[in-house]
What does this fold into?
Amino acid sequence: MKFTCSQQSLTKALNTVSKAVSSRTTIPILKGILLDAKKDGQLTLSASDLDISIEKKMPDVNVEEEGSVVVSSKLFTDIVRKLPNEDISIEQLEDKSLIIKTSISEFTILGLSPEEFPKIGEVEEEDKLVFDKELLKEMIRKTSFCASIDESKGIIVGVLIEVEKDFISMVALDGFRMAVIREEMKSENENKIIINAKIINEINKIMSDIDEEQEVTLILNKKKAMILFENVKIVIRLLEGEFIKYKDILPKEVKCKVKISKNLLHESMDRASILSKEGKNNLIRFSVSEDFLTITSRSEEGNVKEEVPLSLKDGDDIEIGFNSKYVLDVLKVLDDEEIILEMVSSVKPCVIKPAEGSGFEYLVLPVRIS
It folds into this structure.
């Protein structure tokens, strides 16, 4: 194998595929990246940890000799990143080692045989969805932070993607809060898949590295999903099991409903949480009266009181406590000017909704207040 390519293009491709390299595996081949050069001037880079596999094609590579080899992801990426911004020549020797050359640098590193590298392959299509890239990124950003990070919690480490006839939903929950994001989308088939939140966040990072506005294709079957965009193919092993019946968790009644400025609430909570962090459970208290939502927090260091005016109040006055982090996490991802808070009692969840439409629902469990 022998080829020449630009240092910048190779660095960018390595940044993409290295997100599928496992740092915890004991299998040496899974710590590597497969380089496969073809005479048609295309270099394909592949990596896999068996849960996620990423393949990135680099066109416009000057390939003198075809061939393939597996290189250490960390070592090869570190070398390429630090080379000068010019063309790099890479040549494979008889013993699988690689010579990496620029006008001023030359490295020789060991390579591994590609025979044992996992085959990425295709996903047999049962359903196909086409997203606007920015829309998919937004849905992931507004949902995945609510998934559990505790691997022992089973299925709730994943994000549910639920496809219905007229819209698509993403759902995540961790036992303390829940996110439900909906977007209109026509689909011939109904489907449900669950993707590990860590993996879906890596996919979001890869999409963020792509500048062009473009569509993303998602191909589904029962065990795997494949995502395709701009010379990138990502194959994901889906989580198996039944997701929580999230629609049953959403409260069916409302005793207190308020409309409030999202920015004013965010700013007031940000200030109040300075003291809540000094206390137990990051506790803040909401007191809803006719015209204001009053936010208070106490700790050994002092206390704070913030008043946020209400645009609308319907129903009873209420006092309810929250872990400030869980409410702030929601407010950080919302772009709406005004939001609706719906509450039932001091021991039942608060639901955060848009002032208009039904694009999202966030549910936050309260903390008992004395």
